[in-house]
Amino acid sequence: MGLFSKILAGGLGWAVGGPVGAIIGVVAASLLGGGARRLEQTRYDTVNQRTAAQNDFKVAMLVLMAAVMKADGSVVKSELNVVKSYLLKHYGEDEALDALRMLRELLKQDIDYRAVAGQVRMNVTYSARLQLLHVLFSIAMSDGQMPEREMAVVKAIADAMGVYDSDFRSIMAMFSVSRNEDWAYEVLEIKKEATDDEVKKAYRRMAMKYHPDKLAGMGEDIKQQSTEKFRKINEAYEHIKSVRGMK
């Protein structure tokens, strides 16, 4: 059973309704038949809420992935490769292929990404929203730069998800290719003029913000993504320590 079939068999919660449900209903009709009626029958159907929450998040993530990939009018190979790698790493070959079939259908849809992101904001923890934004950045920056249209879509999604500007800039700095002298400070959400003590406090604060415990109830894929983000936070901290001669 592929990923999309598993999602429908396993049940959905909040994703059944609203803009996400409307989009997935069309995809369900195309891939499985039955459309919205088939989708409605999956709502918490003898399923625990944790499984439903994980399924909801997977569906919303794929919808927003499609929105970012479509942002500049065409899907480029580098973006598709990033998505394939992500899905293969976290879901395995069979489920990844099924998810890609779902993604291809999503790419045909008109996606109101602001409405979808708003629905995510209402139903997903802030920590999980940051992880989702991290995934979207990895797609948009797949070729080492972010076109203006994709930047506009990612920023609009972040705003609609209620992500603070400081967190948006921090994640953007993690993907910076140029690595200007301020990038490490932007990752830690502090100014270059910060004292050594302020740098240490910022590092501890960021470590707490992205601790896996903040993602209780989410799938292992999101928890693993948190580990990657924490690696970049450590990299920024070690860079500042090296430049300043901090111990």
TrEMBL record:
Protein name: TerB family tellurite resistance protein
SUPFAM superfamilies in UniProt: Chaperone J-domain
Annotated J domain residues: 183-247
Residue spans crossing the bilayer: 12-33
UniProt cross-references to CDD domains, sorted A to Z: DnaJ (cd06257)
Gene3D superfamilies registered for this protein in UniProt: DnaJ domain, TerB-like
Organism: Candidatus Aphodosoma intestinipullorum
Keywords: Membrane, Transmembrane, Transmembrane helix
Pfam families: DnaJ, TerB
Top-level taxon: Bacteria
Keyword Metal-binding on entry: no
